Amino acid sequence: MTTKLFGTKVPRVEDDRLLRGQGRYVGDVFSGQDALHAAVLRSPHAHARILDIDVEPVLDVEGVVAVYTYDDLEDAMGEPLPLLIPHPTLTHGRTQYALAKDEVNYAGEAVAFVVATDRYVAEDAVARIRVRYEPLPAVVGIAASRAAEHLVHDDVPGNVGARMEQHNGDAPAEIAKAPHTLTLDLDVERSACTPLEGRGVAARWDPDQQRLQVWSSTQTATGVRAAVAAKLGLDLRAVDVITPDVGGGFGVKINHPWPEELLVPLAAMRLGRPVSYVEDRREHFVASAHERAQVQHIEVGFDDEGRLLGLDVMFWHDHGAYTPYGLIVPIITSTQLLGPYKPRAYRVVFESIYTNTVIVTPYRGAGRPQGVYAMERTMDAIAAYLGKDRTEVRAVNFIQPDEFPYEHGLVFQDGRPLTYDSGDYPASLEKIKQLVGWDEFPQYRKEMAAQGRRVGIGLACYVEGTGVGPYEGAHVHIETSGKVKVATGLTSQGQGHQTVFAQLVADELGVRFEDVEVVTGDTRRMPYAVGTFASRAAVMSGSAIHLAAKRAKEKALRIAAEALEADVDDLEITDGVVSVKGAPGASISLGTVAVLSNPLRYAFDEASKSATQFAVGDPDKPPVAPGEEPGLEGKDFYSPERSTFASGMHAVIVETDPDTAEITILKYAVVHDCGHLINPMIVEGQIHGGVAQGVGGALYERMVYDENGQLQNASFMDFLMPYVSEVPETIDIDHLETPSPLNPLGIKGAGEAGVIPSAALFASAIEDAEGIEITAMPISPSDLFTLREEHR
């Protein structure tokens, strides 16, 4: 019998196939076929003029089929790549060309594109291309950019792409008259997504059908489709974009189009053969996207209890050489910085500035880790100044449960008012204190000290805007077999969409979970969509799928009511069978209802015999009712009035080695509120993965450039990532459910939650263990060792 699946730990349907090595990624699309392969010549300079490109040495290489430079790009392909999210304050937005024109602005920028019979030949050919450069001074780092002794772009004064201010109240005035004030300067360094699978794209052109098929490892199939159509001068309907299995996205794959997503289809059309490109790991480091780098200056005024009277924040955001994704990251920092707190007055100003480094796009958390770092470090500083417990200072500043919806008087990243929909922050604080043993920690510290061991405890709170619009859609089709096919346009990168979406459909339709199949990221199945980012999949596509399934159910019950000569209100669906309540013999399967929904002239099989013109329907009525389509399907779209706001609190106990300064995690606890939980196991899996990335971002991962703009650690030999030995073996998780009133399921997003508070959390715990102020993250053992020496 069908049972309700919403809120149940249903095992992921994706895992068996993926764990058995049966995944199908971009690199597998043309496997075994006579496809061509591409390689990219990338600039060795961070900043230089291109004087000449000589491709002659390549043209006679056996196996080389084509070589492209900027001069080979025509019409829209010769124009800069799109600035995806314009903003009024982005006064000096700049984007690169698919292949560099006249100048390169970061080491790794695409200069030439070679297509050959295999990747080895293409790589060898790339090495033979001769380019004469005139090196220019490189601007590396926020300090150099602000100094503006040299410019990244000659037409961008001071290297400032944007300056934005938001405020609610008069923060400087409140600070000036506050009983107590503090000033903090905080740094966060660059990091990178580094997913398991790098970027990749494959394309095939059908000259007879005049149709282009593109496979991309992307977070937005419909976005890539629109960009490819626009740049290649094709009708939108002539382009299909399919997202196969994706080995992680984490934000880097939301940017579109990457140069290769245009160059590969262009080559496929010109050459009349399938073309494939998959970046190698070094290319991902030097040519994809980074994030996190910000310098933050905070001034705060507060009373004797630690209440925030005025908060004034200025920060500088390093957006790299170009701004294809606009100001989303710093806007999120500036608005999400407030977390669960309600300062009397708040002002934030940021400058988004150019450097001769890899571009910046959102990385899991997308500006929130920096904002939480600023706010939570401020809370810790206030507590230390007043000699109060860190939880007490937070508690007196919380928005209270009866104050929702809570308006901050700011504009969020979706262009809508920053209005929190629901939450209970005092309850979360009590849960996290119990989970980590906050009140018992002083005794634990004494016991560890007696053994010569040094431990510290940290806490960090956050609020995460999720379910960002503008919309997502879904199509639900009940087939004559009784199976249910579901399509939604956003893509999957391992989140478990095929499982949670099937749970929603099985519940709404009353069918077996095993009979529901979900397809994502295929424009042939759902051409209208936005993408997977900002913890929006469950809220947006989940709501759309729920609504579409509801439509399909309503139609199924209408048709079944006619067939069973019953009232719709007397029907129920269980295990895919529609029956009359209280009348066991009066029933009809959904598969048969699907047959009846599509009156046919011809009988193709046994099932279709039931739907021919002499077998079905009232002779006095038209076979298909006015305004209704044949088939048992439901289609709907969900567009929210504004974002939902999830929240959470993390706590950690760390040990710092007195000799080596190594940092060991002894206990990690999470309390999370994403409204109603569709699948608690998948939510917890998202938290586990996020915590692992957060540990990396706080203790290990940083992108190190030299003064010439050369990335010094562009490999996993040098770029440190946490292994399983560095990630907490056990993470204690508790859930709080405050439903969102903004969508039919009462849910909020969860995908980024685990990573958001990590920098602030570890800084708090390490500072507690060492008694040394922590103002820059990430912090490695060598950093801590240096801080100790300076402190001495």
From TrEMBL:
Gene3D superfamilies per UniProt: Aldehyde oxidase/xanthine dehydrogenase, a/b hammerhead, Aldehyde oxidase/xanthine dehydrogenase, molybdopterin binding domain
Coiled-coil regions listed in the entry: 547-574
Region (Disordered): 613-634
Example GO molecular function: iron ion binding
Keyword entries, A-Z: Coiled coil, Molybdenum, Oxidoreductase
SMART domains: Ald_Xan_dh_C
Aldehyde oxidase/xanthine dehydrogenase a/b hammerhead domain span: 20-137
Pfam families named among the record's database cross-references: Ald_Xan_dh_C, MoCoBD_1, MoCoBD_2
Name of the protein this chain belongs to: Xanthine dehydrogenase family protein molybdopterin-binding subunit
Species of origin: Nocardioides mangrovicus
